[in-house]
Amino acid sequence: MNDLAMHFKHLRRVFVWELPVRVYHWINALAIVVLCVTGFIIGNPPGIMFGGEAHESYWFGTVRFLHFASAYIFLFNFLFRLYWGFVGNKYANWKNFIPTNRRFFKEMWEVLKIDILQIKSGEHLSVGHNALAGFIYFLTFIAFAVQCITGFGLYAAMSHSLIARMFVWVSPFLGGDFALRRWHHAAMWFFILFAMVHVYLVFYHDYVEGRGEISSMGGGWKFIEEEVFEEQNSKTSA
């Protein structure tokens, strides 16, 4: 009990995730769920027999509307996150996602040893995103862009909106609508696999590190060891 009290006495409550980052995260999660579910239905619609009037069975039109509306929300939410990477705090900054020095790659290897190889070569703790998570999010942002481009490229053939018409070049560039749908479908599976790994690692790190990883995306606060917090501050100010 004394050891436990000594451990928690050195924790500092640090505000990491700003409200815009947290709102972006949950809007993005909800939009992806809606897009994946409705995308599956649109790509392989079930044959439902219905004996009533056609206007009484407009469920597929509702599915399409939800997909297109979620796509717009997804796009503008993504653009906002790119903007916040330049104006947000140091934990939201774009530099956390793109490898810019050798220390970034070294930290990625340390995280891989702990998360994948389960090698206890020394506990690695970061205040915000660790280097590996940041790099994976960078790849995810690229997948976001691919999904937006291919999705609105498909939508351009059936819409006269200004945003949709900006993507009329996508289908000819990728060789037609069939190839475009293949790219769009493949990117969807990337999101599904990413979500599974992401949720697992959030719970894993919350259990291993015990610093409020899960609750931080609700309230924004983490509990960081004093020495880790001071070390991270010295690195960012150097």
Helix/strand layout:
Layout: H1 2-9, E1 11-15, H2 19-43, H3 59-87, H4 102-115, H5 131-155, H6 162-165, H7 170-174, H8 177-209, H9 216-219, E2 221-225, H10 226-237
Antiparallel strand pairs: 1-2
Backbone shape: elongated
- Classify the secondary structure makeup into a structural class: mainly alpha
Percent strand equals under 5%
In the CATH hierarchy, the architecture of the domain at 21-44 and 57-195 is Up-down Bundle
CATH class term of the domain at 21-44 and 57-195: Mainly Alpha
Q: Write the element-wise H/E pattern from the N-terminal end onward.
A: HEHHHHHHHHEH
Helix count?
10
Q: Major sheet, described briefly?
A: 2 strands, antiparallel
How widely separated are the two ends?
A: 38 Å
Mean pLDDT: 84
**Strand order, largest beta sheet:** 1-2
Q: Using only CA atoms, what is the Rg?
A: 22 Å
* CATH topology group of the domain at 21-44 and 57-195: Fumarate Reductase Cytochrome B subunit
Q: Low-confidence stretches at least 5 residues in length (pLDDT < 50)?
A: 1-8
Count all strands and give the number: 2
Name the CATH homologous superfamily of the domain at 21-44 and 57-195. Transmembrane di-heme cytochromes, Chain C
Question: Roughly how much helix do the residues carry, as a percent range?
Answer: 55-70%
Written description of the protein model:
The chain has a domain at 21-44 and 57-195: Transmembrane di-heme cytochromes, Chain C (Fumarate Reductase Cytochrome B subunit, Up-down Bundle), CATH 1.20.950.20. The protein has a two-stranded antiparallel sheet with strand order 1-2. 67% of the residues lie in helices and 4% in strands. The protein is elongated, with a radius of gyration of 22 Å. It is mainly alpha-helical and 238 residues long.
